Amino acid sequence: MASLQDKVTIITGASSGIGESTALLFAESKAKVVLAARNVENLEKVASLCKTKGLSDSDVLVIQCDVTSEDNLKTLVDETVKKFGRIDVLINNAGKGTPGNVMVTPEATLDDIMNVNFKSIYNLSRLCVPHLIKTQ
User: Fold this and answer.
1) How many CB atoms lie within 10 A of CB 5?
2) Secondary structure element (H or E) that encloses residue 60, with its range
3) What is the per-residue pLDDT across 11-66, written as a single tens digit (0 to 9) for each?
4) 6: closest CA among 25, 29, 23, 35?
5) What are the structural domain ranges in the chain?
């Protein structure tokens, strides 16, 4: 496997769970991590944990981001490129699920799930691909 050292990596849903664990694995590999999620307080905790793995302040970027907002996604990409000059890796991890069944779940709930779990991946990938192509 190729080295992740110094690879600029955007991770959505980085404030907990799989996103947090992914951020810590990339931090152990000395990648530069861009942590994105809605909960800034949790993102700051993850950023601190990344620094215990050997990253410096300059290796970590925390960005509050609602992945259903195209403006937020554009800001995420722009701020990443502004700080690091490139994007090497994109981890589209943000996701959600809502318990219930099809008989009682409102269509608005389905729309929200689809916007987070599908449309945001399309939108962020579309914004990142030109940068990812440059770093192949």
Assistant:
1) 10
2) strand 60-64
3) 999 999 999 999 999 999 999 999 999 999 999 999 999 999 999 999 999 999 99
4) 29
5) 8-134
Distance, in Å, from the CA atom of 123 to the CA atom of 13, rounded to the nearest integer, reads 15
Sign of CA dihedral 87, 37, 15, 79: positive
- Architecture category of domain 8-134 in CATH: 3-Layer(aba) Sandwich (3.40)
Three-class SS of residue 89?
strand
Residue 100 is predicted with a pLDDT of 84
Q: Give the chain's count of helices (H) and strands (E).
A: 5, 4
Instruction: Report whether 91 contacts 21 (CB < 8 A).
Output: no
What is the rounded CA–CA span in Å between residue 107 and residue 112? 9
Q: Which two tokens stand for residue 64?
A: 């509050």
CA distances in angstroms from 18 to 6, 12, 25, 29, 126, listed in the order given: 21, 10, 10, 17, 23
Q: Is 64 exposed, middle or buried (0-12, 13-18, 19+ CB in 10 A)?
A: middle
For residue 116, give the amino acid letter. Answer: V
